[in-house]
Amino acid sequence: MEKATSIALQPIKWLKYIFLVVQLAFIVFIVHRYAIENNAFFTIMIFISVGFMVHYFIPIQHRMFSFGLLSMAGTAVIMGWESSLWIFSIVAVILLICRSGLKFSYKVGLILAGSGVLAVFRADIMPFYGPEAIWPILGSMLMFRLITFMYDLKHAKKIPTFGQSVAYFFMLPNVVFPLFPVVDFTNFTRSHYNGERHKIYQVGVDWITRGIIHLLIYRIVYYYMAISPSDVASPSDLMQYLSSNFLLYLRVSGLFHIIVGCLHLFGFNLQETHHLYYLSASFTDFWRRINIYWKDFMMKVFYYPIFFRLKSLGMTKAIVISTIIVFFLTLAFHSYQWFWLRGQFPIIWQDAVFWGILGCLVIINSLWELKKGKGQNLAAKVWSVKSSVIYSTKVLLTFTCICTLWSLWSAESWLGWLSMFKVLGQLTYSEIFFALAIFAGYLICGYLLQIWTRKRIAGGNYKGATDRRPYTTVCLLVLMSVMSIGEVYTKFGPDIANTIATMRAGKLSKLDTQALEKGYYEELVRVNRFNSQLWEVYMKKPAEWLQNPGADLKYYTGDFMQYELLKSTSSSTQYGLMTTNQWGMRDQEYPLTAKPNTLRIILLGASIETGWGVEDDETFEGMLESELNQLLSKGSKNTIEILNLSAPGYKPLQQLPVLEKAQKFHPNMIYYAASGREMMRAASFLQESVKNAVDIPYPGLRDIVSKANITADMDATVMEKALMPYREELLAWLYNELAIKAKNMRCKLVWFLVPGVEGGDWETTAEQSTELARQAGFEILNLHNVYQGYTVNDIALAEWDKHPNKLGHRLLMDGLFKEITGSPERYLGMKISD
Question: Membrane-spanning regions, if any (predicted)?
Fold first, then answer.
């Protein structure tokens, strides 16, 4: 404490203080401009920055406790007082037990009993009368932190102070990051102002900046590089899939750098959480470099105690058994973590295979190192071209193996994963030569980089590089700030402008948008918990979100259409009542035959058209019918009826049997509401139909199934890949069939795309679908800009539910009304007035 006190009581250095504050101001600006993570993180960064400005002047003896109070205040700001009081109360009870005078075994027993009670509530076995929002944050604070706290408490010579305990469990910015590094309690307390404070603060700013850069690079990989296994059609696609999948881990390393950087701002001189893990030269090296805090936690609490107990069996047996136990516990702890964050305890083969194989590789590597002797480190070796080539080759091989293993961890199925590697049989001599050329270039660059690094350190320049770091950080912050301004980045051409615009958007990628869409209608077996933003969305959503919208309104038909809405039924949802009429439509009552002078329109669509998320009288279809009839009443005897035959979850191919059943209503017009992923959704339904052995009544579809050579016993990913070349043909067939049936019914066809509430891949795929509809004879109605001027938060139901809300439906109605009344003869087949 004397050393820390002497360090902290140095005279205030106003220039350094102002320099740090200016950098934090840039960081807050960048977090806002690039939409880093979410609004809560932006709020907490402002909170942290202001807190740092005050904390800087607090006497050393009060800083630990003041950080604890600041962390609790941050929790209250983000979570609200009700949720915060629950969290404070539960943690307070646990701290009272830990700090009591009871025997250690009694403390452990009480904590285990209390944890069991909390687990019962978390699993919804018993009703919990507090807010559900507390569980991810409470779990993040306690699930691993309590283990290391109790371990250190057992071995500590004195009980930690109350201020240390509060600061440790509530540490900022945990309240906005449920996925939080496992900070060791001893390191947390011992590192507090154990060096010159301005250097500690500056390292924090550097690491926050580095973390932001990781997240921006992650977004580029996420949006532009990440592809699905079904998209792998060539060796280059396979390379892209394997590398991008592992590169997505940049998000975790970026967040962890930001988290530990924030802790540095309050004097906690902790080590970095990741260290050049993409440059690992072996599997043990990879284990040491990636998620260092997790490795240290497992080694301290489990590996070393087990190893020293087993050391009498011999070094080899002790290493093998200890490592096996550590990796088994790592597997179990990942499911344990998922339980506290989401209330489920998944045990899936991908986790078991990944940790099992990685554990075996680490064991083999460890035994090899033991045999060769760890004393032979790189610094002690004579550097040469040969050693450089060997080292670079090891890095490349390790990276390739980890990429392959990581892809298996992310795979949906074993057969789907294996099917990707069939493309290696398509390798051409030119591709092999190109790969060898890249490898040679990599070795040359690796050699030059290693020589430069060794000379820089050997020449005594390393310290100088450290001294220049703040100015490098400032340059990066200024550059990111300037490039976030539209008037600036648009000057560099459309490619750069689009890339920077992508980096500024915190939206889901094409793959995760599809997974999110899929999650509306079926339980997601697994969510990629470390590679994508979907994990964050999935973690935040209410437990009932995955319940099928309007599921209790459906009945199954047993044919290709699969299901319809029940007739004359109502269902209560969190957004209000969903009521159906005598025909099974979410609409008002209509007679089977229209009255004279009535234009009858059939609307074909899915959940948005059904009106999921709004009341019965708030759907765009109902409002449009009312507005059109109000306009017609001013100068015409005609009336309009829009019969809403939409149903949640309907895919494009289901609209064909729906239209066939709609013939009994004798419509005059058919409005087809399309999504932005028409081809993918059509192929997905056909794949599901084949998989479930559903009878396919259309010869054209059976021909496509035959050409794709898919059968019910095939893996889903393999089927998806086989159907990929036929997606366009499939959608063209559907639109032509709809056109033929409309012609037989003497109906006019209108096609319009319902835009997503935010930009995304629907925009890139919409043009192709629109052209196919035009070729089939549809009139095209344009709604592309109906949401212009509104943010996603204005018109989406929630972050995890991108259906339009009441305002979104009103905007859709306004867009349709404007287009229809602008060309009534084209979209209604009649004039508005006589």
Answer: 14-32, 39-58, 64-97, 104-121, 165-183, 207-225, 246-266, 318-341, 347-368, 389-409, 429-449, 470-489
